[in-house]
């Protein structure tokens, strides 16, 4: 068995994924090949991996190369997690430049104008990787962790429909944490499914296994108290009430209100209360898709999340290779492909093709999937609740036009994608922001003609 990690020079991704792989008995004896274009970072991760394998006496062979063709030769599984250029410098341009022209986007990674520019940068190199995969190891299973997930998966599946390409995201994992606590029952007693678009999905059903009873009424009844009283937010609120100030000295009244608003869940709460659906992620992602999001999201929480995430990713000290259980779902998927066992993954990103009938067939959606030695089998969810499906439908044209802009190298389609986006309310601002970004990021967007 050969497993290839593309983007392995990232300590967060490379070392984290290796920790999962090394714990899986089904993968023992495998060759793990690390690939990255950054030689120094790649060498660092490879060195740590070899040392860990030697110290633990693990039956894995570790290789590392900056030659992609060499890395892919004979691959059975390929896991992609890449970014283009200086990640946070470009991310902040995606976020702030459209705002400078008056476009009200609240984050700028996966949706809205920022999501467009991010997608237009990263889709071309991922398409190149996929072309190599089809040429060198066409039977490989490919798992993508790069964002913007929906737009990447849509473009790849249109260009290379024969490739076994699946997108995986962590957001849906939050349900396995929150639902047992909220409903006061073990996870093993809950049967649930979620779906929609990546970063814009909701819990669709949840039942108690022991009684067969629908648990969604309990979710709706308990969610407000649960999120308001989660330990981290309860501790923050208690501190404010005890001292009259927030730990960083910010205005206590404003932050008291934030603590009571569930912490980065202002829009989350509106969606739950208005549509009756529990979102699977928080304001920083949800807010990218809705034109009225800036009125209700927890802006302070989004800024705080981004600052903490950036700081964590830019730390000079590298995290250790862990051995405390799986952190990523791709390893249970690979194990089920090899051994079976009835595993169902809670969320893979695949082309719709009727899995969700009230969304277009030719865009990527996020749905559960059964996994066995015969393959990965996406689950048809049926029609989504009408109200929430209406929100998702506003993204369909944006996803379509963004994917086609990247596939065709078309600046005209890029402008059309911006103008179709619910987060864009001005033709002039859209055109000016696009021209500014094409100039600012011409190293990556110069292929758009």
Number of strands: 11
Largest sheet report? 9 strands, mixed
Strand line-up in the sheet with most strands: 3-2-1-4-5-6-9-10-11
> Which geometry do the CA atoms define?
globular
- Counting H and I runs of at least 4 residues, what is the number of helices? 19
Poorly predicted regions: none
Q: Note the gap between the termini.
A: 42 Å
Q: Return Rg in Å.
A: 22 Å
Q: Specify the structural class.
A: alpha/beta
Oligomeric form of this entry?
single chain
Beta-strand content estimate: 5-15%
Assign a percent range to the helix content. 40-55%
Q: What is the succession of H and E elements?
A: EHEHEHEHHEHEHEEHHHHHHHHEEEHHHH
Averaged pLDDT: 93
Could you explain how this protein is built, in words?
- A 9-stranded mixed β-sheet has the order 3-2-1-4-5-6-9-10-11.
- It is built from 19 helices and 11 strands.
- Helix 6 packs across helix 16 (386-408) and helix 9 (231-243) runs antiparallel to helix 10 (252-260).
- It has helices at residues 11-23, 39-56, 68-72, 87-100, 112-136, 149-159, 174-183, 216-228, 231-243, 252-260, 266-275, 283-286, 293-296, 299-313, 330-339, 386-408, 411-420, 427-440, 442-445; strands at 2-6, 31-35, 61-65, 77-80, 141-144, 164-168, 190-197, 200-208, 343-351, 364-372, 375-378.
- Strand 1 (2-6), helix 1 (11-23) and strand 2 form a beta-alpha-beta unit.
- It is of the alpha/beta class and 449 residues long.
- The chain has a domain at 173-296.
- It is globular and about 55 Å long.
């Amino acid at each position: 068995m050969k497993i290839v990690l593309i983007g392995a020079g990232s300590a967060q991704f490379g070392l984290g994924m290796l920790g999962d792989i090394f714990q899986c008995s089904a993968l023992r004896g495998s060759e793990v090949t690390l690939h990255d274009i950054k030689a120094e970072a790649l060498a660092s991760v490879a060195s740590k991996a070899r040392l860990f394998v030697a110290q633990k006496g693990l039956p894995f062979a570790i290789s590392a190369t900056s030659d992609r063709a060499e890395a892919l030769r004979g691959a059975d599984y390929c896991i992609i997690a890449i970014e283009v250029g200086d990640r946070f410098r470009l991310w902040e341009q995606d976020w702030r430049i459209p705002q400078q022209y008056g476009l009200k986007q609240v984050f700028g990674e996966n949706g809205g104008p920022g999501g467009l520019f991010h997608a237009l940068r990263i889709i071309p190199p991922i398409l190149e990787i996929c072309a190599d995969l089809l040429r060198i190891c066409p039977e490989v299973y490919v798992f993508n962790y790069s964002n913007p997930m929906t737009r990447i998966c849509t473009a790849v599946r249109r260009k290379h429909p024969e490739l076994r390409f699946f997108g995986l995201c962590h957001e849906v994992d939050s349900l396995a944490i929150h639902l047992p606590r909220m409903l006061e029952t073990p996870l093993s007693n809950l049967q649930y499914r979620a779906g929609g678009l990546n970063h814009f999905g909701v819990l669709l059903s949840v039942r108690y296994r022991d009684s067969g009873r629908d648990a969604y009424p309990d979710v709706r009844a308990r969610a407000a108290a649960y999120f308001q009283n989660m330990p981290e937010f309860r501790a923050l609120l208690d501190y404010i009430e005890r001292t009259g100030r927030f730990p960083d000295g910010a205005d206590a009244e404003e932050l008291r209100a934030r603590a009571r608003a569930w912490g980065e869940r202002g829009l989350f709460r509106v969606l739950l209360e208005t549509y009756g659906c529990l979102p699977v992620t928080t304001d920083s992602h949800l807010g990218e898709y809705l034109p009225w999001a800036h009125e209700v999201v927890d802006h302070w929480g989004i800024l705080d999340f981004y600052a903490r995430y950036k700081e964590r990713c830019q730390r000079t000290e590298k995290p250790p290779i862990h051995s405390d259980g799986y952190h990523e779902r791709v390893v249970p998927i690979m194990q089920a492909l090899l051994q079976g066992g009835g595993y169902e993954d809670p969320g893979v990103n695949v082309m719709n093709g009727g899995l969700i009938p009230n969304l277009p067939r030719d865009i990527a959606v996020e749905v559960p999937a059964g996994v066995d030695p015969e393959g990965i089998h996406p689950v048809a969810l049926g029609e989504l609740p009408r109200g929430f499906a209406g929100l998702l439908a506003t993204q369909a044209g944006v996803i379509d036009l963004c994917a086609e802009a990247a596939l065709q190298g078309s600046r005209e389609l890029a402008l059309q994608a911006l103008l179709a986006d619910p987060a864009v309310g001005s033709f002039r601002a859209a055109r000016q922001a696009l021209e500014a970004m094409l100039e600012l990021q011409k190293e990556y967007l110069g292929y758009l003609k």
